[in-house]
Amino acid sequence: MPHNVTLAIQRQDERQEALDAVVIPATDKQRHDLGRAAVGQAWMTWSSSEETSKTIKFMLPQVAATESEWRTVLQGYRFAIRIADRHEATALSLPLPEQAGLDSREKEQASVLYRCILEQCQELNHIRHVRLLARDEREAALYTGLTTGVQGEDQA
Q1: pTM of this prediction?
Q2: Are 82 and 120 in contact (CB under 8 A)?
């Protein structure tokens, strides 16, 4: 991984230490207020939370059934990572699709998302640790398997 960025996959219900920034899906009210114009976008909000003061909201499509919707999902992840880095976060928590409210991903789509995250990490200046949050054991296992596969390809 370039720039010494570490990537970890963790189930949402596991104990987590505080990170510099967290990415969370937009609320229903934000979806209503911002509408389709904001789908695929990400933005920084500030929080008085003891855990982190940097919260990045991103608005993914509510479903990702078409190729266009899936490209919008990838765009949302890219933007969220860029914004965290721009605000000099060194550690970031990022929900995987099911944790972010999307339907189960096929292995091929999960692989595309994982590679998208890896590629975005190549351009980072500040982030050194990205924690990918899975909704359950199945989603965690899917992305853990991709991690192993990508590391194997890189070493070949």
Answers
A1: 0.87
A2: yes
- The single residue listed with the structure tokens 């695929």 is 40
Other CB atoms within a 10 A radius of the CB of residue 95 amount to: 23
CA distances from 129 to 3, 76, 103 (A): 10, 19, 26
Question: What are the tens digits of pLDDT across the range 10-56?
Answer: 887 766 677 889 999 999 999 999 988 899 999 998 766 666 678 99
Is the torsion defined by CA of 22, 23, 25, 27 positive or negative?
positive
Distance CA 74, CA 116 (A): 7
- Euclidean distance between CA atoms 74 and 60, whole angstroms: 9
What is the C-alpha to C-alpha distance for residues 42 and 33, in angstroms, rounded to an integer? 15
Written in H, E and C, the secondary structure of 40-67 is CCEEEEECCCCCCCEEEEECCCCCCCCH
